Structures are given as C-alpha cells and as structure tokens.
Amino acid sequence: MENSVLGHLMALERGGMGQQDQHDSQRLEMLKARAVTLRAKRDQIKQQTDVVKILKDKISKDLPLEDDAAAAGGFIEQQKSMLTAWRMQLKDLQRAHHLIGGYELVECKEGKSVCVSFHTAFEGVYLETYNMELDLTRTVQISRHNIPPSFPLESFAKQNLQKDFKAFLQTLSQNLNALAARRRQVCLLKELVGSVEVMESNQLCNILVLMCTAQSETPKAVLCTLEYGDLSQCLPTRVSIDCCIWFLISYEHVDLESAAMTLKHINSVFRSVRFPGFEFQSHSVT
Amino acid sequence: MEQKYEEEIQMLQQEIEMLEAEQEETLRSIFIEHGDRLQHELKSVFEGRGGAQKPTLSKLITEVRELEKDLRRQTEINGIALNECFVKTLHKSERKLVQQLRLAGHCSVLLFQVEFAVTEIQEGDALLRRVTELNIVVDGVEFKDFSAFVSRVEDTKDLLLFFRTLRTFSERCEERRQTFQHFQEKYPDVVSLPEGCRSELMIIRSPQLPGISMTIFWKIDVSMEGVVKPSLELLLKMPDQAREFDTKKVMENGSNYFQSLLQILGVEASIEGLIRTVCL
C-alpha cells in the first residue's frame, strides 16, 4: 500500500514537473524572442547613429555630401539624417516655447476653433496649466475651458476678446499666474512656516486670514488679514493686524511690548517684497 | 539559460538607451556647429534633388513642414521669436529629466539671451517641473532701468514672469517709439529726439523761441514684481530773462499742469497740445 501511495505520489510529482517544464520553456521562448527583437532594434539604431556620425564628419570637414562614391541608398540615408537633425531642432524650439510659457495655440476643427493653454509658475516651480477652446465661426467665443468658476473670466472676455485677442491672452495669463502664485504661497506658508496657521482662505486666494503665534513663555498670537486687491498681482495690497483676539484675554498678563514687537516684525516683513521667503519665527522679544 | 537571456536583454536595453542618447546629441551638435551648412543642404532636400524621393523621406518632409508651420504660429501668438535654441540633456531616466537650454531671440526690437536649467520628475500621474538655474542678458537702449527686475527674476528663477513682463514691456516701448516717431515726422522743425526714437527723451523747441525748450521724459518703469508702469514727466527750460515775464509761474507749475493734462486728454493729445503751443 505504501508503495502504491508513494508510487502515486511520484507519478503526480513527475506530472507536475512536466507542467513546470512546459512553463519554463514557454518563458524561455518569450525571452529568446525579446532578445532577438532588441538585438534588431539595437542594430538599426546603431546603423542610424553611424550614418549621422558620417554626415557630421562630412559637414565638419566641409566635404560635399553628394559624391559618386555614395550609393543612391546611402544618399537617401544622409538626407534622412539631415531632416532628422532639423526636426530635432524644430522640436527643441517647440519645447522651448512651451517652457517659457507660450500659449501653444492649436487649430482644431479645420480652423473653426482654436485651443490655447495658459501655463502658470511661481518662482521657478511650474504649477497648473489651464486650457481653453475658442470658437471662431462668427465672433470669437469661449466654448470650453477648465478655469475655476471663481475667476472673473467673463469680465476679461468682455473687455478684450473681440477687440484685441493678444491682450486678452496676456491679461488672462497675468491673472491666472497671480492666482496660481497666491495659491502656492498659501501652500508654502502651511508647509514651511510652523508658527503660522491659515484660518481662512477663498477660491481666488485674495483674502487670507492667518494666525501668527510667537513662541515664548506665554505664547502670543496675532490675527493677520491679507487682502489682495489687485487680482493680477500676488502681493497683498492691504494687511491688517489684529491682536485683540479672545485667547489673549485668557492670559493674566498681556505683554503689550512683545505684542508690539511682533506687529513691527510682521509689518517690516510685509514691506519687504519676498512674501514666501520670510519667517514668522518665534521672536524672543524683550 | 533563462538568466543569460535576461542579462542580455538588460544589456541590450541599456545599449539602446545609450545609442539613442548619442544619436540625439550628435543630431543636435550638427545643428549647433553647422547650422548654416545644414540649412543650405536642406534646401536641396526640399527641392527634391537627388532623384525620386522615397516615401520615407516625403513623410519626414511633411512632418518637418508641419513643425515649421506650428513654430511660426507659436512665434506669432507668443510675440517671442527664438533665433537660437541649444538643448543639452544632462540626465535622462524613466522618471527624471534634467536639461540645460540656451535661448536667444527677440521680442519686437528687444533682444535677449536666456540660459536656464530645468528638472522634470515624474511622480505618479503628476509631472513636477522646476527651473533650477537662470541667467538672463538683455540688450537694447530701452533696458536702462531693467536690471533690478532681471536680477530679481534670476534669483527667484521666475522664467515665465520674465517673458510675460518682457512682452508687456516691449508693447509699452513700441507705443512710445511709435508716438515719438509720429510727432517727429509731423513736426520735424520743432520736435527732436536727441537719443533716437527708442529712447525716453523728446525735446520740443521752436526755432522762433530760442532758449525755451520742453523736454518730455517718457519713462517705462518695471518693478521687481514685473509690473510695467509708463510715466511721463515734463521739464521746462526758459532763459533767465524770460523768467521775469513768468507771472503765471508756468515754470514752477508746468510739470503739474502736464500731469493733469495727461489725465484728461491722454498721452498723444497732451503732447500734441504742447507742440502746438510752440508752433506760432
């Protein structure tokens, strides 16, 4: 009985290994095929690279590109390389326009509409891109876009869209960048400055209420309201500081002098232009 | 057996990446070093010399023509013309790309040269891109008071702000140039532009009234945040003898009067008004 069970088990084992073998050989075939494809690709690219190198060599030595020695096929390859070099430059130029914040105007629907993109960035960090499709059939009309609804798009369109398309694009770019910058500043504030808490903000980020805490033996805080009156800018037009907030009352002794020092510090900081660079650090005010 | 294939595949993939990068760099270097010759040779390619064009070539040519057309469109709508564009790829992997770019071009008549480095990192769905170095050189008589803005932009790496501001600045400069040129052509005896039509100075003088001159300073100020603000000022000069007759204190109040005039009539009408006062 042992024998037959063992025998049975062994037979099963052999059967299983057979499956494994099949599995293995399938995988082997796959790898072999992939290696062959890659080898072919590598050879093709190597050949192209060689042609390009020969072209470069001829050009730098000021040799004529058409010579009797060059077989017709070789000459076509050369022309292909030259075109490829020019195409590379054109694509680089396209990318450059993209990186410097170009509008990337694209014609769609056989010229019946155009699409533009508004790239935003703040201090070197690229942020959101907003897109818009404009219908050109009779008058210029905005048909689709992904600009937030709180943004005064209609009023800008009313101002400029029909009269001066470029001015419309410029105004939008300016204001969208300011919006993205204000939003980013709020993020940076939250991330980088520990002693500041964002109490309130809105979609357009043009009102910001911050609670700034100064660490000392008795923690003090001031409430700071920033109003951004000019939506095309990312600096506040009005800053009001309120230090009579409820929890100051809970402290026996409100140190007016240190509150005043805090205010002075905040004021001088806003007068200097670099908003996200400042630090509302604890001031050991004495 | 399997392992050998796996190793070969990895090696081939690396080789392909390297060859592609090499090809890219060589193609770019042909353009950088021999752009003129390349353009010259390309002319004959486009004209279809050298026998019948194979289908592969005509496909490439169509693609290239499309790209050229698109670039013309971008140049037109962006108001920025790029004459030079050199790209160097410092690092390229699946998730990260680091490139250095050198651009030169012009925005209307204002020339610029910009060198910057950009890093792109793919994090999931999002592409994080940032400018890590920025150097700007601007050339032109208009850029007298531009350097504070340029230094600030270089510090903050705000490439997009630079080009946005450059566009607006160039529009204001163009308005100034056209206005100055218009008045010089219309009143050549009275209006002079001692520093050229691209400068900020215009002098109004009548040959019949020697010693009396009105100088208009049309400054275009650019703040550190890139706010472009034109401002006009008037400077009056009168010989000392004439001052005796200045009972209405025009010399003292002239520049203020001019500011009021600007607010009511606008720039062109105000300047025209001034010019007419000396055209007796």
UniProtKB/TrEMBL annotation, chain A:
The keyword Coiled coil applies. Keywords: Centromere, Chromosome, Coiled coil, Nucleus. It is found in: Chromosome, Centromere; Nucleus. InterPro entries: CENP-O. This is Centromere protein O. Residues 28-96 form a coiled coil. Belongs to the CENP-O/MCM21 family. Its main location: nucleus. PANTHER family: CENTROMERE PROTEIN O (PTHR14582:SF1), INNER KINETOCHORE SUBUNIT MAL2 (PTHR14582). Transmembrane segments: none annotated. The lineage of its organism: Eukaryota, Metazoa, Chordata, Craniata, Vertebrata. It comes from Sinocyclocheilus rhinocerous.
Automatic annotation (TrEMBL), chain B:
The keyword Coiled coil applies. GO terms for biological process: CENP-A containing chromatin assembly. Residues 2-29 form a coiled coil. GO terms for cellular component: chromosome, centromeric region; nucleus. The keyword S-adenosyl-L-methionine does not apply. InterPro entries: CENP-P. Keywords: Coiled coil. It comes from the Eukaryota. PANTHER family: CENTROMERE PROTEIN P. This is Centromere protein P. It comes from Sinocyclocheilus rhinocerous. The gene is cenpp.
